[in-house]
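Deviations from the work plan: none for this task. Representative record:
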Amino acid sequence: MVVPLEYFLILSSALFSIGVFGVITQRNAVRILIAVELIINAANINFVAFASYNPVGDISGWIFALFIIAVAAGEAAIGLAIFINVFRNYGEIDVGHLFTLREV
Amino acid sequence: MSEYEIVIKSFMPIYILIGGSILSLLMDWLLNEEKNKHALPSITLLTLLLSAFSVWNRPDPALFPGNPAMFYFGSYYVFFALTSIAASIIVVLAAWKDMELELSLGVFYALLMLANIGIFVIGASNNLIPLYVGFEVLSISTYAMIGFRKKSRSGAEAAIKYFLLGALSSGIILFGMSLYYGATHTLQMNSTVAAALVSSGSSPNAFGLFTMAVLVAGVSFKIAAVPFHVWVPDVYRGAPLSVTNFLAIGSKAGGFAFLFKLFFVALLTIKAGWAPVWAGLALLTMVIGNLAALPQTSVTRILAYSSIGHVGYILIAMVAFADGSTELAVVGALYHILANVFMKGTAFVVVLIVVLTKGGDTLDDFKGLGKRDPLVAFFMSIALLSLAGVPPFAGFFGKFFLFYAAVDSGNMYLAVVGIIMSATSLFYYARIIHVMYFYEPVDDASDQSQPRFLVLLVALLLANLALSLGAIFYTRSIVDFATQVAQEFFV
């Protein structure tokens, strides 16, 4: 039995929506980062699924997925370093409380 | 030349930058801080110049192997590579004094060179994989640069804001790219494969519409188009000023390189779909960016909002390109991006001077600058007039080309709104000039020990004037260059 492409697309759209919802509703920076990772993984699922069902046999989507995993790891590393820095300066990483720069 | 030789020679500027950043990391580890204070910026400058030289001496881009080739080192690449190098040289010269007290300075300069690599790769790529990787190399190194001052609360706040929004936008862009791949079955960007995004006639199908919507949202974050601009003033204010300068001139050029590659090459077939969207965003960005600058009291925030307004002007080029004035739109966009490097670069260097002498960047700190330091105030006035679009300076010609492209493509309303908003912007630029010349200095602490960057400021003024003279006397060659760039889009 072959799983139809639509199932993968439904899964990735759901992941994408959950990710966007998480970014909008969460106030803790780590939770926002996790939500962003969900969005990136939704794109990854899309790439792998589209490459597997590609009618012309182009598999570059698989390669892109590998690149995305590597880049997302680098991004998460920088992000966590920034969060640690914020925690050292503010004692918390709740983005709702970081308002010192806003004036007008 | 063999294929390997061509590949190596094409990538030589990037190899040089990688070598420079490894060298500066090593120097950070081996030499002491006192030596590094001057050695590191010198090495960085040398690397940037060497890299610019090898950008200029690149092999014929058509010989790059691969069918279809993943990279094309053409005029578009040369323009953005040299622009980013010019921006980085300004940043290095400003950071020489601005960052000299920081620890592990080698990391800072290494990150700056890596950010350049990102822009180079964006400019050269013909494929979504290098395009995305270049974009991320640029973004990740700027996240780290913004948070570079570990003890600074505002720097940490700016870094976390920029990081969260940047990571979200790159995730959204990735999702858009995956839809593009699904529709076209290839990651190669060219106008023929993108036919899969079109239904009948020239309107995009459902796939095309969704791809376009997701990509517009993602890229708008990066270039700071309204309504995705809220991070700009906070981040510009919080980051170290030389990094703010890089964000406003270098990183912004990289964002536009990415935007043009995506929409002019990959999504060219559905231009009927995205042109009205960008027209709306351009209008919003021009109006809100310029109006929000009016009540600000911090000069950094004024410049941040003015930078949003300038994004709106450049976005006019998107609409003009879609509506047929291809060459004019490219002339306007590229010219204005380059002019922006010189004028906004000058303005931020002067803000840096004021912050170093007075400790703040409010309008009060600019009071009496004309008496305290007439030369610096003069350079600031020129930069502000150029930003406002007053005739003999480069900013005027940038806006002129853009508005001309708008009129030529039948979008009169964009030019009208642009001109009204330029007039509005003169109000807040003139307010800074007024404060500099018509007030007495608050205290007569004429501290001459602080750096004044006179060589850099003179060089920037000359570059600005050279650019405007070029627009008058070499219009033909500028248009020829833009035609060449536009032809690269239609591969």
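Chain A touches chain B through 48 residues (CB under 8 Å).
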